[in-house]
Amino acid sequence: MKEIFSYVRPYKWTAIFALCLMLLELFVELVQPIIMAKIIDEGVRAQNHEMIWQWGAVLLILSCLAFIAGVVNSYFSSHTAQSFAFDLRNAMFEKIQSFTLTTYQKFSTASLITRLTNDVTQVQTVLFMSLRIMLRAPLAVVGSIVMAFVVNAKLALFLVIGAPIIFVFLVFMVSKGVSYFGRVQKRVDRLNRVLQENLQAIRLVKAYLRGTYEASRFEQVASHLKIDTVKALRTMEYIMPVLLFIMNMSLLAVLWFGTKQIAAGSMPLGDIVAIVNYAMRMTGSFSMFAFIIIFYARAKASAERMAEVLAVENEVEVISTSEEASSKMKFGELAFDNVSFTYPGAENPVLSNVSFQVKSGEKLAIMGATGAGKSTLLQLIPRFYDVTSGQISVEGKDVQQWDLQELREIIGYVPQQSLLFTGSIAENIRWGDAEAEMDEVLKATMQAQIHASVEDFPNGYDTRVGQKGVNLSGGQKQRLSIARALLRKGHLLMLDDSTSALDVKTEQALWEALSDERATMLVVTQKIRTAKEADRILLIDAGEVVAYGTHDELLQSSLLYKKIAISQQEVEE
Ligand SMILES: Nc1ncnc2c1ncn2[C@@H]1O[C@H](COP(=O)(O)OP(=O)(O)OP(=O)(O)O)[C@@H](O)[C@H]1O
Description:
The structure is a single chain. The chain has 21 helices and twelve strands. With 573 residues, the protein is of the alpha/beta class. It is elongated and about 120 Å long. The model is unreliable at 322-327 (pLDDT under 50). The protein binds adenosine-5'-triphosphate. Adenosine-5'-triphosphate is lined by residues 343, 346, 350, 368, 370-376, 416.
């Protein structure tokens, strides 16, 4: 909670100002009963009309002051709470951008979304309440007790007896609430996950007629959320009755003792009115406090979840040794030397002792059955993951010695799943190079064989891409992703099965257009037709290199390659 609240620091003056206004409100609230007692004893009972008018006017002015202070306090409290939430969200978002893929796997996407939305809101609400009413509640309790002593010490004693019991009880309830609400937030995570999965796969849900099943899955997680929330709130609901019971007992004692004293003529009526007034205020403040405690318990659980995100130390070290000039710097050259890799937490290696070299400007095709480790191999190059053993060198330098940003800048990567972002087509392509001129964009789209399709769209390059590119075909998305990577003008171009949705003619035209690319190319493919065009082919099976060479060499040396070639009717049996 402490480190999360450190985000309030930049707004400490507005927060302090809001607190001062709150104190002014509280002061007015506390002197009111004394003035009332005075009016009753010296004005009403003594039939002194002038006195009633005078003190009545004082009461009115004080009430107006308290009203204005309340309005201004609200303004500053909400400004502080909103700015705090804004900064906190940005800090978390920035942190998440620096996560390694391993860290992403530890948090689920849905959980990160909940932490950035719902969790921030919980803490923001409590901050607002703190500045507006939360601190006021305990101060009002203490203030009421002090003022009660000022008015009549004997009667005030009855009010004091209950206070410590209530305090201990409240502390106990908060600690209980934090653990309950921690569980509730986890349930919100799960609800978000189910919702997210469902919305992402809505076409599949419809095609497989899984709507009813999905609805029951959602109902299940929603009911878990309901049950746990109810449990948490029910526990908190014990607070009010216990509190009211203790306070009402005190009040009864005040009335019993007070009326006896008044009857005996040893106490003015105004005193008992004021003390009852303070007792009511204490009860009100305590119940307000109890109400806020529910929010506080929830916010504390949320704050802990946010602190987890902010505390992540990323595992990929960014070692920059730019002074150590790489002597054998060769444009786009790549070498794997005995590389093995096991996913964090997994038992078996996905890649074992992989070695190969690709010279500057060469094209390497990577083939292998699904799950063989092709995508993983590509992802090790920009250090999405670090090798378990062995070494990967880019342009003669170990990737772990590269400055991470510089390394990624020279790589154009087209992932297996084409992802586009909401925005125009041109904006999406400019992800490759934000500064690129329009003629460079056009060159990339022409090479990627997507220019003509874009021209056919109603707004050409300004056409908006829907969320995740829903208004584009699979092949169009793939080609836009390729154009994006080409615009990067990297030294290394990695295409992960990125032409699977293209027809034969378009694919051929694409490879032709790419044939004079200066960059070294790594092309993951299932098609012998594509692999044949490459300078060399790397065939992997269950994470191991089983063949490496040209198409003709592999036909001679690898039975597996030959079998694939025959199955694709690329060679005669
Ligand atoms: N993030 C991950 N965590 C743990 N294991 C993973 C992860 N990603 C992939 N794997 C495992 O690594 C193996 C290789 O996966 P990879 O995606 O590299 O294969 P691939 O050859 O590209 O397959 P495909 O052609 O189907 O895309 C698979 O067995 C897969 O289950």
